[in-house]
Amino acid sequence: MVEDGHKIKTMKKTTSQILIENLSKKRYEYIKQRENSWNEEKEEYEIDPSEIDELANQIQDLIKSGRYELPFEFIIEELTKLGDAPCIFYDDNGHFAISGDGYCSVSLEVDDWEGTFFVEKSMWKDSMREALDYYLDYEDDE
Q1: Which residue pairs from 65-73 have beta carbons closer than 8 angstroms and sit at least 24 positions apart in sequence?
Q2: Cβ of 62: how many Cβ atoms within 10 Å?
Q3: Is 79:24 a contact under the CB 8 Å cutoff?
Q4: What is the pTM of this model?
Q5: How high does pLDDT run on average in the chain?
Q6: How far, in whole angstroms, is CA 67 from its chain's centroid?
Q7: What is the 3-state secondary structure (H, E, C) of 4-53?
Q8: Residues 30-78: pLDDT tens digits?
Q9: Residue 108 DSSP symbol
């Protein structure tokens, strides 16, 4: 497979990966249905978001339980579909951190931007996979 001029090795998808992709597609369809259900007169959506939230919880649980068999980039991409904003940091000393806490300027066009992110000392790990584990478990510890 070729993407953007780069050869990409295709790997056989795991059962968890296929299930997550299917749930993600189903969730996206519910989101589109909900967005289309806006009632101008009542100024509210006519479709309850609980099914969307339940699917998000199922996807998060599957990601957490299958984290060691799922490809790293797949996990990051699926988290962004759930509204997470995982940012990977490297400290030039062999340590990695993943944080979703921060803020940055928003532009309608791709442009230079400046951001501020919060990385606690405990978030720095010796590998990206360890940083991902910490990121996935961090909200459970709070």
Answers
A1: 65/16, 66/14, 66/16, 66/17, 66/20, 67/132, 67/133, 67/136, 69/14, 69/16, 70/14, 70/16, 70/17, 70/20, 71/11, 71/17, 72/128, 72/129, 72/132
A2: 18
A3: no
A4: 0.81
A5: 88
A6: 13
A7: CCEECCCCCCCHHHHHHHHHHHHHHHHHHHHHHCEECCCCEECCCCHHHH
A8: 999 999 999 999 999 999 999 999 999 999 999 999 999 999 999 999 9
A9: S
Which positions ≥6 away from 94 have C-beta within 8 Å?
A: 126
Residue (of 107, 105, 132, 128) closest to 116 by Cα position: 105
| Cα dist from 49 to 85, 97, 117, whole Å | 21, 32, 30
Task: Give the torsion through C-alpha atoms of 95, 141, 79, 56, to 10 deg.
Answer: 170
Tokens standing for residue 37: 């259900």
